[in-house]
Fold this protein.
Amino acid sequence: MSINLGSAQQNIRHFSPGILWKSLVIFTLILVFSHSLIFYNYSPYKRSADILMSFVEHKISPTADNFSNSPTNIGHIVFVILGSINSLRYRKPYIEAWWRENITRGNLWLDEFPTKKFLPWPSSSPPFRVNQDLRKWEIYPKLAKPGQIRMFHSILEAIQIENATNSNKDVRWYVMGDDDTLFFQENLVEVLGKYDHTKYYYIGTNSESVSPNHGISFDMGFGGAGYALSYAFVEVLASKIEGCIERYPHFHFSSFLSHICFADLGVDLTIEKGFHQIDLQGDISGLLSSHPNSPLISLHHFDYVYPIFPFKSRSESINHLMTAAKSDESRLLQQTICYHRQSNWSFSLSWGYSAHIYESIFPRSFLRKPLQTFRPWGRAGFMFNTRQLNKNPCEAPHVFFLETVERFKEEQVVTNYTRGRPRNMPVCSENGNHSADLISKIRVFSPGKGRKEAGRIECCDVEYEEGREMADVKLRACMKGEKLA
Ligand SMILES: *[C@@H]1O[C@H](CO)[C@@H](O)[C@H](O)[C@H]1NC(C)=O
Ligand SMILES: *[C@@H]1O[C@H](CO)[C@@H](O)[C@H](O)[C@H]1NC(C)=O
Ligand SMILES: *[C@@H]1O[C@H](CO)[C@@H](O)[C@H](O)[C@H]1NC(C)=O
Ligand SMILES: *[C@@H]1O[C@H](CO)[C@@H](O)[C@H](O)[C@H]1NC(C)=O
Ligand SMILES: *[C@@H]1O[C@H](CO)[C@@H](O)[C@H](O)[C@H]1NC(C)=O
Ligand SMILES: *[C@@H]1O[C@H](CO)[C@@H](O)[C@H](O)[C@H]1NC(C)=O
């Protein structure tokens, strides 16, 4: 109760000119920043494929109409991706990295018809739609940011399309995202499958940095992280969207308007930890190496952060991460910790991304806190605890990044991680002088069959003989009461 009152007050405070002005400054900064960067050139296990297959099977037998009891699959989700002609050139590779032709449903919404250089439109991209022209609308002159209103209005236009083609009856979720949002669809399906789409839901996340939440709203699902709206909610929302724009024409940010409108209809944000707005700067490897124990759903803002793999461009980095995703989305970025007690080493693995070796035995409660390799947006810090980087050889990890992914049928998946760069530090002498400098490669074996159970960690064993350059790590279910410390 008190929480609800608090959020109501917060929303009311947003209407005061001071806060609005601050938000305006932040938005302007975001826009300026984003444009300068856009032009900066860089150029109980279930088989994972089943989630997608059940949709394909459904398409073959369209009479299977009884959805309410069947598991959610990718065919139940309509993506509403908000883009523009200006950003298309830079962001098309991001969309194509995750979009699956003939499987993913939805559209990329644009402000204008694509110019010749984008045509013919490739089938590897989501089909595009051009938004309705809002200029004829009476309210238009009062709109503070027509471009942002256009994005918000896309929700309504997407529903109208599904309605017109009579395909709405098998939609369970509408998922909003930006053209620089990377979605992990199998994980999204699994997470949304926990919720009842016949009830009202607005599922997403807020910003990782305190300042954007403080300046905009702690109650908002940030649009770049993506958010999901249940069908039942969208059905009532559709007829309210234009009224809401007329009520609040002065707002500057489509996700902000969304959460205000949803609040007016009594629907508040449900937070899922797999969505990521990535309001961070610099090197986000620390965060990606200690991801929360929850399936990875989205990543965003690749233009603002360094490429996530060393020696790769942004686009190459994304495609590299997607090769791991294709082999096993359920384990992607999931942290697994184990120890080599003969050497007093801790191994922390972020599956499909990185592996760290510490020359100390550290408990999981410590290792799951991200190493602060990145900076926040604004001055106010992060929404989660971090570990400071330090030069103590007992605390600084040896860092390895994903090199190759290989699947051996149903049996197992082998991922190799190679050293990013030399650690350039002496050995940790407090724990018996066991240097890990010699290790240049870590090979990780994980089950090839089925998806890892969401929200439950796995354990592992390290196999390493002194003097060798490669360490092997084998993932397995944790034993009853197994201690990670
Ligand atoms: C849908 O499934 C439920 C339970 O399996 C069943 O009771 C109901 O009759 C089905 N409805 C239709 C239209 O097939
Ligand atoms: C998608 O469907 C079209 C039409 O059925 C087909 O021509 C095309 O090969 C399909 N693409 C893929 C990648 O399956
Ligand atoms: C969808 O179609 C139904 C009738 O088929 C109509 O009642 C409803 O208003 C339509 N919704 C939207 C958002 O167009
Ligand atoms: C991993 O590295 C080893 C040793 O370099 C190599 O033999 C093996 O083929 C690699 N495996 C994969 C899956 O890349
Ligand atoms: C591990 O480190 C502790 C001190 O932290 C030390 O007492 C112990 O001997 C070390 N064990 C090995 C096998 O080096
Ligand atoms: C580790 O090396 C340091 C310095 O070289 C030495 O003082 C210390 O006794 C060594 N510790 C062990 C356990 O060998």
In short: The pocket of 2-acetamido-2-deoxy-beta-D-glucopyranose (ligand 1) is lined by residues 66, 69 (CB under 6 Å). Residues 331 and 365 are 20 Å apart (CA to CA). The chain is about 30% helix and 20% strand. The first helix runs from residue 2 to 13.
